[in-house]
Amino acid sequence: MFRLHDVSYAYGGSRTAQAALSHISLDVPQGEFRWLLGPSGAGKSSLLSILALEAQASAGMVEILGVPVMQARRGALARLRRRIGAVYQDFRLLPDLNVFDNVALPLRLQHRAEAEISHEVHAIMKWVGLETRLDALPPQLSGGEQQRVAIARAVIYRPALLVADEPTNALDDRQAARLLAMFHRLAELGTTIVVATHNDSIVRKYPAPAIELAHGHLVRDYR
Amino acid sequence: MARQRYHDGLALHQALPGRFLPFLVGAMTFLAALALAGGIAAHALSQRWTHGAGAVTTVQVPNPDDPAAANAGGASPAATRIHAVQDILATTPAITAAHRLTDAELRALLAPWIEQTGDGSLPLPAVIEVHIAPTRNPDNALLARLQASAPGTMVEHDSVWSDRLAALAGSLQACALLAVLIVMTVAVCVVMAATRAGLQTRRQAIALIHSLGATDGYISGRFSSRVGLLALGGGLCGGVLALPMLLAMSHLAAPFTATTDTLPTMGMEWRNPRMLLDLLPHALLWMLLALPPAAGLTGWITTQLTVRAWLRRLP
Ligand SMILES: Nc1ncnc2c1ncn2[C@@H]1O[C@H](COP(=O)(O)OP(=O)(O)OP(=O)(O)O)[C@@H](O)[C@H]1O
Ligand SMILES: [Mg+2]
């Protein structure tokens, strides 16, 4: 669940810079799935980075999972980040950790027991079809394989909010279908999910409410 | 647990290599140990020369064998002036030792003048060498009391040299303190630079684990415990390497700093570690022991502050 009220965002915090987002207001309840649509440069990644607490809005009110982000202390934000999963457009895998350790990273930071971590990682990697590549380093994987590792890392700790930036752009149709099926299942289990894409065919195949941006403005908020 | 720490993506063994930092911290500790030793040696020398065995006060009593003056405050039971003076000196708490020079010692001391006058029967004053407890100065009241019993008594404190020595020792100690401060400042700068370089090389990983919910405390704790350990190791090496040098220096300085006049036996027992350590002033020994933990703590605190300041750039 998250709420934005009159949120604006400019890179570098400068007021003269052209705003990447202007006056966005949104309210998405717990367990809902939303597409985030818009042409390249519309501000989709910027909006997701605010939801993933990667960037601080320049103005407005942001409330994520019940926490008022603008007033929260750093420690509270760190705890909140452990309940948010993010699949970045550029994957952000650590090149010197193998696939297993990359996927295990969020659980290790939560000090889970090693046996439990191993069990969870094997289960999720089997699901994304990479259970044989656990010892590979990310640079040794194809783009689609890296994307699946990034998705596995984002969902392994069952976040309450999941934001995914073009999570299907390196996947084939069959894998994209599996992924979206999993997202819908996660939403049913209570995870709020926002998926940015400019792939219209996939949106037509999996109709769902959508948020549409253009030039940093909210143009439509379907329900 | 070990696996968790070493697979959290920080790769601190690459970010903070284990040679550069301990080497530099070790060198700094070595320098700090030498500076501290210099400061403590200067202090010990000045103590000895201004108050201790090196500083002798002489009391001259003319006509020592004349009857003591009758107007001495309390009825003095002593018959002669020299006895009266010796009684007073013996009961003054600040005075640790008083030794009347024998005739032979006195004549040896005065030989050049006696030979010039050629008069062996010249009446000589009695001379008493007095040692005064450190940090306590004989006051003028003592002189007045002495003169009341034995008119003409003079007290001479060789203060020109001791004052100069005290000033010299004071400035040497100030230099040593300054050197320690500079060494610490340089060490802090080195740790800061190394930490910043480490943060820079792992900035992607840090940004990622930050976005996965790692707290500032976790990240700074990981960096500072590694730097703290490296600095502690470097400090231990530096301290251990400084020890033989300080022992050799203390051995050379022993005759000048000894609080008694007995020279240490030259046949040193190099194989007896207890005796060796006894050579070092206790203050220096404690400081030497404190240096490695101080280096580790300095490294830890500096890294904590550096990393936390750096993490502020992340949202
Ligand atoms: N790091 C940055 N510094 C400055 N401006 C940026 C930065 N990142 C994005 N922008 C600008 O902000 C605006 C929104 O960018 P954003 O990445 O949010 O678009 P997007 O909708 O995700 O596009 P795409 O579909 O191509 O990923 C664009 O005008 C872009 O040029
Ligand atoms: Mg984008």
Automatic annotation (TrEMBL), chain A:
Pfam families (alphabetical): ABC_tran
ABC transporter domain residues: 2-223
Family assignment from sequence similarity: Belongs to the ABC transporter superfamily.
Keyword Electron transport applies: no
Species: Komagataeibacter saccharivorans
Protein name: Cell division ATP-binding protein FtsE
Keywords, ordered alphabetically: ATP-binding, Cell cycle, Cell division, Nucleotide-binding
SMART domains: AAA
Record's GO cellular component terms: plasma membrane
Family annotation (PROSITE patterns): ABC_TRANSPORTER_1, ABC_TRANSPORTER_2
Record's function text: Part of the ABC transporter FtsEX involved in cellular division. Important for assembly or stability of the septal ring.
Name of the encoding gene: ftsE
UniProtKB/TrEMBL annotation, chain B:
Sorted UniProt keywords: Cell cycle, Cell division, Cell membrane, Membrane, Transmembrane, Transmembrane helix
Annotated GO CC locations: cell division site; plasma membrane
Residue ranges of the TM segments: 20-42, 171-194, 227-247, 283-303
Localization per Swiss-Prot or TrEMBL: Cell membrane
Domain annotation ABC3 transporter permease C-terminal: ranges: 178-256
UniProt KW Transcription keyword: no
GO biological process, one term: cell division
Membrane topology, from the record: Multi-pass membrane protein
Major localisation: membrane
Keyword field contains Secreted: no
Name the record gives this protein: Cell division ABC transporter subunit FtsX
Organism: Komagataeibacter saccharivorans
